[in-house]
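Sample intake sheet
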Amino acid sequence: MKKIIFLFSLLICSTFFSTATFAEEVRYVTDSFSITMRTGQGTQHKIVKSPKSGVKMTLIEEDKKTGYSHVRLQSGLEGWVLSRYLVNKPIAKSQLASANSKVKALQSKVNKLNEKLNATSKSKSGFEKDTNRLSKDNAKLEKELAHIKKIASNQIAINQENKKLQEQVLTLKRNMQTVQQENIKLQDRSTSNWFLIGAGVCVTGIILGLILPNLRFRRKQSWNSL
């Protein structure tokens, strides 16, 4: 009896381990053909789907004894497929498509980086041109500033010379005014002298006019008395 119970327990354990539930893993239909997904383990069960190669599905459990795996499609449909038609990684076709997609994405990034690099190069070129232009403008302004400083220094010297000449002109004007005043005074004195001389001559003439007739009259009387 004990032996029967032991054998029965061993059979149950073997069945349990053969149909044990696995942690859900990702599986892919192997390359180059389609497989059948059935409602149970065996060809006698109804076909519910025929996934093509590369289709992604989730592994629910695997029965190594029967060689079937319980899977779930991304649409949510569940069924049994032969385990030998499943692989752990995407098929070469899917990998190639994924690689091409990644290559396109990377190429797009490279193109964008090249565009940025070209834009940066153009900006750098434009910046260098602006720098050269500004350097030339700065040199030109410095030259003009030096010229203006030179003119300003000459103008200062000219202004100082003009100031000296103006002072000399003012001095000459003052001297001229003094001379003119002296001339006016001399003219006034000369006029006064001529007036005095004229007045003296007139007075002398008057006196002589009064004296001379008397002298002639006396002379006549003296001659008559002889």
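Comment: The two ends are 235 Å apart (CA to CA). The longest strand covers residues 21-29.
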